[in-house]
């Protein structure tokens, strides 16, 4: 979820109720703010918000059903998740591919922080910051090419 997301705000009370019922369902319910954990949004290939996953024994399934408390509970109690196709191996959050994707999301966050530091804290003009990133990209490419 993300705090600015209207759909996430709409499901928030239902999700909290679902989390309170989790002990009776013998499950663990959690939520992750993708603005604070960009690597996880990359690892889970989050393209829409909110995104709900069911994980059991290292197998991940994306929940696409209704977002009412009854339907969420039924998904677990009636084991409806067994009929859902697991996330493909290469797209699984535990795969090497998704570890790399998470790394790219972390890198983009790091680059954004550097840009904000250069333009906000140091007062460098935005275009000069862009020029520095272009120069750094070219130099890294040259270095790796050698």
TrEMBL record:
<keyword id="KW-0676">Redox-active center</keyword>
<feature type="transmembrane region" description="Helical">
    <location>
        <begin position="122"/>
        <end position="144"/>
    </location>
</feature>
<dbReference type="InterPro" id="IPR036249">
    <property type="entry name" value="Thioredoxin-like_sf"/>
</dbReference>
<keyword id="KW-0813">Transport</keyword>
<protein>
    <submittedName>
        <fullName>Thioredoxin-related transmembrane protein 4</fullName>
    </submittedName>
</protein>
<feature type="domain" description="Thioredoxin">
    <location>
        <begin position="1"/>
        <end position="76"/>
    </location>
</feature>
<keyword id="KW-1133">Transmembrane helix</keyword>
<keyword id="KW-1015">Disulfide bond</keyword>
<dbReference type="Pfam" id="PF00085">
    <property type="entry name" value="Thioredoxin"/>
</dbReference>
<keyword id="KW-0732">Signal</keyword>
<keyword id="KW-0472">Membrane</keyword>
<keyword id="KW-0256">Endoplasmic reticulum</keyword>
<keyword id="KW-0249">Electron transport</keyword>
<dbReference type="InterPro" id="IPR052454">
    <property type="entry name" value="TMX_domain-containing"/>
</dbReference>
<dbReference type="GO" id="GO:0015036">
    <property type="term" value="F:disulfide oxidoreductase activity"/>
</dbReference>
<dbReference type="InterPro" id="IPR013766">
    <property type="entry name" value="Thioredoxin_domain"/>
</dbReference>
<keyword id="KW-0812">Transmembrane</keyword>
<dbReference type="GO" id="GO:0005789">
    <property type="term" value="C:endoplasmic reticulum membrane"/>
</dbReference>
């Amino acid at each position: 979820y993300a705090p600015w997301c209207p759909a996430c705000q709409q499901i928030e009370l239902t999700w909290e109720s679902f989390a309170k019922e989790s002990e009776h369902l013998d499950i663990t319910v959690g939520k992750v703010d993708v603005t604070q954990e960009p690597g996880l949004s990359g690892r889970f290939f989050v393209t829409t918000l909110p995104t709900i996953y069911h994980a059991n024994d290292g197998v991940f399934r994306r929940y696409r059903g209704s977002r009412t408390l009854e339907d969420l509970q039924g998904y677990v109690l009636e084991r409806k998740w067994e009929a859902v196709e697991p996330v493909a191996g290469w797209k699984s959050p535990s795969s090497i591919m998704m570890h790399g994707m998470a790394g790219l999301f972390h890198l983009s966050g790091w680059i954004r922080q550097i840009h904000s530091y250069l333009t906000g804290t140091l007062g460098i003009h935005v275009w000069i910051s862009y020029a520095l990133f272009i120069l750094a990209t070219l130099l890294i490419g040259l270095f790796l090419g050698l």
